[in-house]
Write a structure and sequence with these properties.
Strand order of the largest sheet: 2-10-9-4-5-6
Radius of gyration: 13 Å
Number of strands: 10
Strand content: over 45%
Helix content: under 10%
Number of helices: 0
Largest sheet: 6 strands, mixed
Order of helices and strands: EEEEEEEEEE
Shape: globular
Length: 114
């Protein structure tokens, strides 16, 4: 059974930082590119960041580039999203995804207070 479990969300003040984690099981993690997406109530899920299976290539949404960093540890089946300089507009639920699959986590809520 495939599971992606996000954690690390919470409440932070504007300008603060959080690190999200996603633990994968039931898949051959090291062959998948991994992505982080986010979704606000009533809006479509949007791309945030992705990382190649090897970790050698990353890409980011314009809105988070320079503030967020995606990384992975294939030995631990983990992918991370370090978020700096958080702003109230970053307040949404964040999801991890095994790229090209229908495997999604349950999401973790990030709330940034002004």
């Amino acid at each position: 059974q495939v599971q992606l479990v996000e954690s690390g969300g919470g409440l932070v003040q504007a300008g603060g930082s959080l690190r999200l984690s996603c633990a994968a099981s039931g898949i051959t993690f090291s062959i998948y590119g991994m992505g982080w997406y986010r979704q606000a109530p009533g809006k479509e899920r949007e791309f945030v960041a992705r990382i190649r299976w090897s970790g050698t290539s990353t890409s980011y949404a314009v809105s988070v580039k320079g503030r967020f960093t995606i990384s992975r540890d294939n030995a631990k089946n983990m992918v991370y999203l370090k978020m700096n300089s958080l702003q109230p507009e970053d307040t949404v639920i964040y999801y991890c995804n095994a790229l090209g699959s229908n495997y999604w986590g349950q999401g973790t809520q990030v709330t940034v207070s002004s």
